[in-house]
Design brief:
mainly beta, Immunoglobulin-like, six-stranded mixed beta sheet, five-stranded antiparallel beta sheet, 1 helix, 11% helix
C-alpha cells in the first residue's frame, strides 16, 4: 500500500508538472505573438509629402502625397487614412497608384478627410494617393499650419506630420503717392500734378478691378489728363477712372494740369483719390482713400512805394511826365496786371511806358 501511494503521488506530481509546462508554453506563444505584432506595427512605412512648403490664401490649391508600404510579415486589413488639415479646406482626390493588385483608395468624408482601402494591403505592396487642399478666408491671418496623417488597420496605426505656411498679402494692398508743386505762386496758371497707385501686396498677389475717383478742390479745374498704362481711361464728367488690375509691385499713374483760382489764396488746398478693389478672398470690396499734402496758394500784394512824382510847373500845351513805382510785397506772382490812370481836369493821357516799353491803352472807363 505504501508503494502504491507513493506511485500515485508521483503520478500526480508528473501530471502537475506537465500542466505547468503547457501553461508556460502557452504564455511563451502568446508573448511571441505580441512581439511579432509589435514588429509588424513598427515596420510599416508611411510617407507624406507636400507639393510646396507654402500656400497662398484664397489662391491655387496645393497637394499632399500619401504613401504607405507594407513591410511587415502580415497583410494590413481594414486600412483607413485620417488626414487632419488643421482648418485648411480639403479639395479632391487628385490621383492614386499602387502595386499590381493593391487595393484602391476611396474618399469617405471630411473634415477630417478620411479615406479607406478597398481591401487588404498584402506584404510587400504599397498604395499612394494625392489630395488637393486650399487656404480660405479662415486663414486670412496667415501663419504655420500642421497637417497630421494617420493610417489605421487591424494591427495598429502609424502617423506622419507636415507643416505648411499660409502666405497672405500686405494690408492695405495698395499704396498711393502724390507728386507736384507744394506751393502755387501763380494762380490761374496750370501746374502739373500726378497720382501713382502701386500694388504693395507682396508674395505675388495681384489686385483686381481697381476703380478710382479723383477729388479736387472747388477752386481748381484740371485738363490734359494722361494715364499710364494708357488702357486706363478718365471720365471728365465724374472724375472717375476705368477699372484696371495691378500685378504685384506694378504701378498706375494719372497726371493732369491743375489750374487754381486766385480766390483760393492763401490756401491751403489739396486733392485726393478714392479707390475700390476686389479682396483676396471673396467678399465686399476693399477701399482706400488718400489725400495729398497741403498745397499753399500765395497771392501778390501791390503797393505804391512812393507817391507819383514828376513835373510840377508847366505851360499850357506842355507834356507832364509822372513816375509811378509799384511793389509786390506778397509771396505770389502778379500776372496780367492792369493799370488804371485817370487824368485830371484839363489833362489828356497821351502814353504810358514801363521801363521804356509803351503799353497799349484801353478805351475802357476805370
Amino acid at each position: 500500500m505504501t508503494h502504491l501511494s507513493f506511485f500515485e503521488d508521483s503520478k500526480k506530481s508528473i501530471l502537475k508538472f506537465k500542466c505547468l509546462g503547457n501553461q508556460l508554453l502557452k504564455r511563451l506563444v502568446l508573448l511571441g505573438v505580441l512581439i511579432v505584432s509589435c514588429l509588424v506595427v513598427q515596420s510599416q512605412t508611411l510617407i507624406t509629402t507636400l507639393s510646396q512648403a507654402n500656400i497662398s490664401v484664397c489662391d491655387a490649391p496645393q497637394e499632399l502625397t500619401v504613401r504607405v508600404e507594407n513591410n511587415t510579415a502580415l497583410p494590413l486589413e481594414m486600412g483607413t487614412f485620417t488626414i487632419n488639415l488643421d482648418g485648411l479646406e480639403y479639395g479632391t482626390l487628385v490621383s492614386q497608384m499602387g502595386s499590381a493588385g493593391a487595393p484602391t483608395v476611396g474618399f469617405t468624408s471630411s473634415p477630417p478627410a478620411i479615406f479607406t482601402l478597398s481591401g487588404d494591403l498584402i506584404v510587400g505592396d504599397f498604395v499612394e494617393f494625392v489630395i488637393s487642399f486650399t487656404a480660405d478666408v479662415d486663414q486670412i491671418a496667415g501663419g504655420s499650419f500642421t497637417i497630421d496623417t494617420e493610417f489605421n488597420h487591424t494591427l495598429g496605426s502609424v502617423n506622419s506630420s507636415n507643416n505648411i505656411n499660409v502666405i497672405v498679402p500686405a494690408s492695405p494692398q495698395l499704396q498711393v503717392s502724390f507728386a507736384g508743386p507744394a506751393t502755387i505762386n501763380t494762380c490761374d496758371v496750370a501746374q502739373n500734378y500726378c497720382v501713382t497707385i502701386q500694388n504693395i501686396s507682396g508674395n505675388a498677389f495681384d489686385v483686381n478691378d481697381i476703380r478710382g475717383t479723383l477729388s479736387l478742390p472747388a477752386s481748381a479745374t484740371i485738363s490734359n489728363v494722361t494715364t499710364t498704362p494708357n488702357t486706363i481711361t478718365y471720365n471728365t464728367i465724374n472724375n472717375t477712372l476705368s477699372s484696371f488690375n495691378l500685378a504685384d509691385n506694378a504701378t498706375a499713374t494719372i497726371c493732369f494740369d491743375m489750374i487754381v483760382s486766385c480766390s483760393a489764396a492763401p490756401g491751403p488746398i489739396n486733392y485726393g483719390i478714392s479707390l475700390l478693389y476686389d479682396p483676396v478672398c471673396p467678399g465686399a470690396d476693399l477701399s482706400l482713400n488718400a489725400t495729398s499734402t497741403n498745397i499753399t496758394v500765395t497771392s501778390a500784394a501791390l503797393t505804391f512805394s512812393t507817391p507819383p512824382s514828376g513835373t510840377t510847373n508847366v505851360n499850357r500845351g506842355d507834356n507832364l511826365t509822372y513816375n509811378v513805382i509799384v511793389n509786390n510785397t506778397g509771396s505770389g506772382r502778379a500776372n496780367q496786371g492792369r493799370y488804371c490812370v485817370q487824368a485830371g481836369a484839363n489833362l489828356t493821357l497821351s502814353s504810358i511806358q514801363i521801363a521804356g516799353t509803351p503799353l497799349v491803352m484801353s478805351a475802357s472807363a476805370p
